[in-house]
């Protein structure tokens, strides 16, 4: 049932939850009987940050032949992974120790989206069944006979470029 709920409603910390205001990070409204605090005088938060969106990929970078620009180099903090669709192919891009790595987004075990998995060091866990893959070389830590495709990554200027 949890799997079906995730498919229909999305993950509790996913983009749909953020857009609909249901993410864990939002605090509940105070009860109607309690006084409301005065609004802060701070500048409004940019929409991209409020929705959890990252810096946009630079448009002024010419990637090397065979590469595509997928992200701004500062779009991911160390220890983060994200799904990116480029040229009709879904890939997962992770940042580990300041280096960007790219692997196929689909878990060979059950088709789970690795870009939605949890990254611990250089190992991502599939959100469906927990199979673990090293983003640096594509090796599977759960079953040594399985491997995910890796993609060569280069940082050019402010752009993360992936060889497709």
Can you describe what's shown?
By secondary structure, the chain is mostly beta strands. The chain has two domains: 1-25 and 47-53, no CATH class; 55-164, 3-layer Sandwich (Rieske Iron-sulfur Protein). The chain is 11% helix and 29% strand. The strands form three sheets. Strands 2-3-4-8 form a four-stranded antiparallel beta sheet, with no helix packed on it. It has a three-stranded antiparallel beta sheet with strand order 1-10-9, with no helix packed on it. A three-stranded antiparallel beta sheet has the order 5-6-7, with no helix packed on it. The two termini are 36 Å apart. The mean pLDDT is 82.
Give the strand line-up of the largest sheet.
2-3-4-8
> What would you give as the CATH superfamily of the largest domain?
Rieske [2Fe-2S] iron-sulphur domain
Radius of gyration: 18 Å
Task: Write the element-wise H/E pattern from the N-terminal end onward.
Answer: HHHEEEEEEEEEE
* Unreliable parts: none
List the total number of helices. Answer: 3
CATH topology call of the largest domain: Rieske Iron-sulfur Protein
Please tally the β strands and state the result: 10
Total domain modules: 2
